[in-house]
Here is the input.
Amino acid sequence: MLLKVKKHIGLKVTQSADVHRIFVDVLKRLPRFEKDKERVWTIGLNRKNLIRYIDLVSIGALHGAIVEPREVYRTAIHLGASSIILVHNHPSGGEPTPSNNDKAITEKAKRAGSILGVELLDHIIVTPEGHYSFADNDWPLSPISSSQSSPLETCRRTED
Here is the structure.
C-alpha cells in the first residue's frame, strides 16, 4: 500500500538519518492502537536517490512481520525504481538492534535485488529513540560469489 506522504516524495536520501527522520514522522501519524505492530516499508528511489514512493509492504504483530522478497520488490518493479531502502520498526522501542531474522531477511532481499537489477541500498530499523542501518554497519552480508548461479544464469546454460 503506497503511503500518502507527499511531503517526502522527491526528497533526496543521503544518509540513514534522513530515513529515520521520515519514519519518526510516519510512526507519529499512526493511531495509538496501531503503534504496537511491526511494519515493513520500502522506499523506492530514482538514480539520484530522490524518493519516488514509500510502500507499506507488511504489517505484523508486536514481535514480527512476514517479509517476502516478491512483496519487497513488487512496487519497485511496477514503478521502475532503480534502488530501494528496506525499513522496519521495532514497536517495543529501545535499541534498534537487528535480530538474526533481520539479518537473514536483509541477505535474502539483497540477493533478490541483485537478480532483479534493483539495488538494495540499506535496511534500516527505526524506533522513536534511534535507528540501525545495515549499510552504516558494513553490511553483515555474504556477497553473492561468481560460483553461485542465479536462476537467470541457469536458464542461459540450459538454452545453450
User: Anything to note?
Assistant: DSSP finds four helices and five strands in the chain. Residues 16-159 form a domain with the Cytidine Deaminase; domain 2 fold (CATH 3.40.140.10). The longest helix spans residues 100-116.
